[in-house]
Amino acid sequence: MTQCFVKIPDDFSGYPIDQFCIPKHYEQDLESVIIPKGFVLDRTERIARDIFESLDQSKPTAALCVLKGGYQFFNDLLHYLRQLNANSNKSCQLSIDFIRLKSYTDDQSTGNVKVIGGDDLSHLSGKNVLVVEDIIDTGRTMTKLLAILNQYNPHSIKVASLLVKRTKLSCGYRPDYIGFEIPDKFLIGYALDFNEYFRDLNHICVINEEGKAKYGSNSN
Ligand code: HPA
Ligand code: MG
């Protein structure tokens, strides 16, 4: 399969925040809107179609949401997959699972990945697993998660990530389905966070220095 994604160029400066509905409490903290929510949804609908077309119907599929950042993409992707399932000649049994990992403080990866919650993964055995993630940055978190999941002997594992960052720190990992390839900037909104803030923002935005200072772990 040739990988298809929307490429956001490095020199794309985004859209002014005063052209969008932004919560008042974040107005000072954002540089620009980089991917409006409507664009995210349109792209998600197409990813759902691509996933559905290559689904192996002979085994059930376990959709695994990587919390917390993946929950919006997961919710919207599953909405489109359910629609396809209900309206096509083929269909595939889908189960829903959650896993919670921790690897970031501020905008820095701590380098170690811990499973800090979620479902019992033993029933992934023999199933097709679809991992749903918000963002691949260095790729180390996903590489470690895949090693963990493989211990449960799934029939197959595919990964869908809404965003993939172009960064020199990439370990080379590429997911099976990509929404957008983005510049090396810290993005927030649509469930992506900075120290747990900005998940309540609809659009994917670039945080500014004021936002980093206000919500950084060294401030109160
Ligand atoms: N934003 C939010 N979370 C992240 C990012 C990002 O740019 N990169 C890795 N985790
Ligand atoms: Mg994530």
Automatic annotation (TrEMBL):
Cofactor: Mg(2+)
EC number: 2.4.2.8
Swiss-Prot/TrEMBL GO biological process terms: GMP salvage; guanine salvage; hypoxanthine metabolic process; IMP salvage; purine ribonucleoside salvage
Presence of keyword DNA-binding: no
Domain Phosphoribosyltransferase: 42-194
UniProt key word Transcription regulation: no
Protein name from the UniProt record: Hypoxanthine phosphoribosyltransferase
Gene transcribed to yield this protein: Hprt1
